[in-house]
Amino acid sequence: MSLTTLIPRIVFGLKGDSKNNLQYTDDNTLVYPAGRNVIVYQTEQKSQRFISGTADTDGITALAVSANKKYVAVAERADKAVITVYDLQTLKRRKVLATSEVASKEYVSINFCPDGKYIAAQGGAPDWTLVIWLWEKTKIGSSIRSSSQQGAPLYQASFCPLDPTLISVCGDGIFKTFRISDSGIKQLPSALAKREAQNYLSFAWLSDESQKDRVVVATDSGELIICENGEVRMLLEASDVGIQSEETESSTQVRVECILPYSKGFVCGGSGGTLIFYDKSEDAKDIFKQSKVFRIENNNSKILNLAITPNEETVACSTENNQIFALGLANLDILRSEEMQFEILAQSFHLKGVNCVDTCIRKPLVATCSSDCTVRIWNYMDKTSELIKFFPEEGFSVAFHPSGLHILVGFADKLRLMNLLIDDIRTYKEFGIKACKECSFSNGGNLFAAVNGNTIQIFNTYTCENIGNLRGHNGKVGSLHWSADDTKLISAGMDGAIYEWTIVDFKRQKENVLKSCAYSSITATSDVHSVIAVGSDDKLKQLDDCQVTKDIETDVRLTKVALLSSTHALFAATSIGTIRSYTYPLNGDFQEYQCVSGAITGLKISHDDNLLFCVSEDSCLFVFDVRDKDGRATSNFNKREKDSIIFSEEVLVTKSDLEDKKQRMSELETQVNELTMQIEYQLRLKELNLKERIKEITEKYTHELESDKTKFELLLQEKNEQEMEYEEKLKQAEERHQATISQLEGQYQQKIMSEMERYQILQQDKDLMSARLNEQNALLIESHERVIQELTEEYEAKLQEELNNLERLTQDKNDIIREFDETKRQLEEDADREIEDLKEKYERRLAAEREIGLRLQGENGNIKETFTVLQKDIEDQREEIKQLYEQKKELYQTISSLEKDIVGLKKEIRERDETIGDKEKRIYDLKKKNQELEKFKFVLDYKIKELKKQIEPRELEIAEMKDQIQQMDQELERYHKNNANLNLTISELKLKKTGLQQEVSSQRKLNADAEAMIRRFHHDLHDTVQYIQDPKALKDSVKHLYEMHVTEQIEPVQLDEDIQNEYNRQREYLEKTVESLKSKLQKNTEIHRSDIMRIMQENVSLIKEINELRREIKGNKAKGQGGLSQKELMRTLPKPDATMGGDGAGQGDLSRKIQMQRDMIGQLRNELLSKEELIKQLMAGSQIAPRPVSREKLPPMDGFQAEVVVEGE
User: WD repeat positions in this chain (predicted)?
Assistant: First the structure.
């Protein structure tokens, strides 16, 4: 089956740490990176096109767009840093630039030259090499190490926009300018060399025809240095003086991170989300002045990159927390700074890494939770963010109800079931599950499962009742998967276990345990017959009926898996940010897609198998279209669009919100009516005032016009008189000018004649010198030709000699080659002969080794039996170690519960601080409302006065207004009283806060003392344990330990009721555990006792047989064979085949039985010796009387050594 393809549909996110990550290609198209892709975003149509990253790279580090807006260069991190150039029209790859001259794995900055011929690439650590690429020819023009000898970091490299041979770089204590020529790169003198070195964060060339080398440089101290013609021309301080509030008396220094030139000057972006505009000035000293300052509301992150449209109507900026904002510049000269606001370009993205993702069925929505403490709802059809909710804590997991109306989010303190309202996400029910890392709704939506440590809890969605718990995992549960009919649940945990549960009786039906693998994600077919799992062992496993059938090695850690319901494709996410598409059934073939630059944390497929959702640690949400190899959808999604079957549009609205909105609408309608009447009345008044003013102005200007006419006539007469006077003066001046000209002509005519005579004399001198030089030149030519002829003859003779030497060396070389060929042939023959000999030798050795291997296999069987016995002993020891580990674990749990109590107290202090802040905020709101009421009272007073002047008295309405004013005064008095009460409450809360802080400090001191005492007790207890083999010393040591640590009588402490209940609950649990362990111990003791009795019985029978054999030996000796040795006696015994009537096989069985009995006797003797030693130790360490001997000791077995000797022979 062919591989399923993924086509990017939309991306919500930005890679904020890339250099120059915002670039405009035209007035409505923006280029920016997201994950490992470059997004070409159309701002009007809100559409996206994608440039996929290069394979085997680790993310985008910098962007650059050519001056003609036709090409984009993308720098990516890899083993060898690589730059890829793409065509922005076709989005096809044009060139790939990589070289081994750069030791760094990345380029920190890239830039096109103005004519697009070169690309400047500034390499990173350790060599910090600046490379000038002739990118169309894919070769390096020149390169140079641009950093200092200490390897200070560099941040930016940029060409001069008016001179493509000038390029500058800046960094920590470095600002250098280079000139590019055919011979290489030459460093020019720096204007900042005389200044003390600073950390230069960024710079920009200012496009000024009169000053080609004018550049502005930003330092980390907020200083802007303007250099011109190699000299420092001006210093500016970047500050937010234009946006400081009324309460702030001094401006704040702004750390400039980026500079962008434009036609009127330049723009700076920096810390605190501040944007500062500097415009050109006509002043010769202050060539630039600060004109406008803006700050992004509710976002104090640094502005890292800036971009401006070609028509300079919009400036876009990217911030440190991965957001893109836009500011319109069309009305920059008209509006004030506070009247212009930043707008989010495209959508608001996650600020930090995304932890989980899920989707629903009835709506085109996706839910995500992130480390930025937000839960966001995205619409992938409208390509918008519908809801954003901020929480005080981070969300670890999220599950979306199939209806699209509810979500389940796991926080650090609780698991919350929330409703999606029209404009809010509101909590409906809270569950006491802390740090829930995995939760999931069933396919029908009537149930949901939530992970609580190593337990899975099943709840009813609509009653919120815990209907069952699934226990069995020894580690944390990492992934859940429901069957299609919701009757089964598959779970996988960090303990390497995969369990299949039935929801009807909440029992485990199937299981598979692999302790060496900690599973992170599972998926399954609709009937859960086949399960796909990934984990820490870097393998992709397929389990059929909970048995591993396929185990595919992967060269990278897989984090998440998702299987299409049609089960013809499997998607796997990796820890390096790529997605793999596997064919299903699995055969190991896959196709890899570049997705994000961090580990993928979530992977989900839509219900119709047409969309794949992916989230990662780099704060991006990717939506892919799932297509087959021909580009067709995998299901009937396109058919549903053609039939106009749309998603559900219902939303949830609470009754209180609806009533509030209706009440607000009625209030607004009343206010509109009142304002309409008031405005109409004010318009009539203004109209009367304007008519009177127009009449006054008309009379005034008529009078002024008549006076101006008389003035004009007087000025006209004066003008005519002055014209006549100046005509006479002009005639006199012309006559004087003519006389002066004639005088000057005579003087200069005489000077010209004298210069002509001087010229003729110099001409004659020149002719004489030319003749003399020609004679000298002829003599030099003759001598030069003679010298050349002599040198030519000399070097021809040397050349002939060298040719003779060359022929001789050529002949010697041919002789040596022939000799080498003959030696080579002989060596090859010797090597072949030696190889044949070695082959025969090693074949014989291999046959011998095979025979030894067969013999060793037989011996291995016996060793395996011994190993089984030893393995059983090892298991017993492990059980004992496990019990000790459980005791240690219980102690650690006690310590952790105490630490949790400390955390709870700290959290309570934090909550009380927040409560105090809320109270202060409420007081401020009440004061603000009080001011609004005073303004409203003033308006009403003014309205009453106007009504008295213009309208007939309406005493009834006036009385009602007075009553209303009295009510408002009373309400104002009540507010004042409430303010006084709130001030008292605040003072009480402050006192409580102080008391709590003192209590916390005392608790911390007590905890420190307790920890010190525990450490001392640990040391003393360790010393006491050393006497575990000496009961008397152990007893004395325990008494000494008690006297040392129990210095006063301990009185019982009254515990809190909740703590007592928790203690009782834990005590019951521990008692049950102890009872179960006692029962297990009793069973094991009985089994051990029965084994001991069985061994003793066997021992008794063996001793009887030994005694009988001894009696037989003594009897044989008494019959006359006593003179024979034991060895001869054994030889006289009848052979087994004669007595038994069997063959050689019977003799072998008998010898094996004898050998086994001998081994068992040896083991029993060893056990007997060890137990005797133990008894001696116990008797020596205690005053217990020794046990009386019940019988005499057995005599030594005289025949045992003889039998051993016989066997050895």
Answer: 470-503
763 dihedral zone (left: phi>0; alpha: psi -120 to 50; beta): alpha
pLDDT tens digits, residue range 160-180? 988 888 999 999 989 999 999
Q: Which two tokens stand for residue 113?
A: 């030259």
| Beta bridge pairs of residue 490 | 481, 500
Mean pLDDT calculated for residue range 666-683? 90
Copy the structure tokens of residue 576: 């390096």
Q: pLDDT value at position 1049?
A: 64
What are phi and psi for residue 1196, nearest 5 degrees? -65, 150
- List all residues 6 or more positions away from 1140 whose beta carbon is below 8 Å from its beta carbon: 1146
Q: Are 473 and 495 in contact (CB under 8 A)?
A: yes
Q: What is the pLDDT of residue 456?
A: 95
Q: Which of 228-232, 831-835, 1119-1123 has the lowest mean pLDDT?
A: 1119-1123
Report the alpha-carbon distance of residue 987 to residue 923 in Å, rounded: 13
Q: Which tokens belong to 189?
A: 């003198």
Task: Give pLDDT tens digits for 370-412.
Answer: 999 999 999 999 899 999 999 999 999 999 999 999 999 999 9
Q: Which of 92, 91, 140, 136 is nearest to 120 (CA)?
A: 140
Contacts of 766 (CB under 8 A, 6+ apart): none
* Poorest-pLDDT segment among 16-25, 70-79, 319-328, 1021-1030: 1021-1030
User: Positive or negative CA dihedral for 240, 242, 244, 250?
Assistant: positive
Cα(916)–Cα(919) distance, rounded to whole angstroms?
5
Please name which of 532, 541, 594 lies closest in space to residue 564, comparing C-alpha atoms: 532
Burial environment of residue 173 by CB neighbours within 10 A (0 to 12, 13 to 18, 19 or more): middle
pTM of the model: 0.59
Encode 876-945 in three state secondary structure.
HHHHHHHHHHHHHHHHHHHHHHHHHHHHHHHHHHHHHHHHHHHHHHHHHHHHHHHHHHHHHHHHHHHHHH
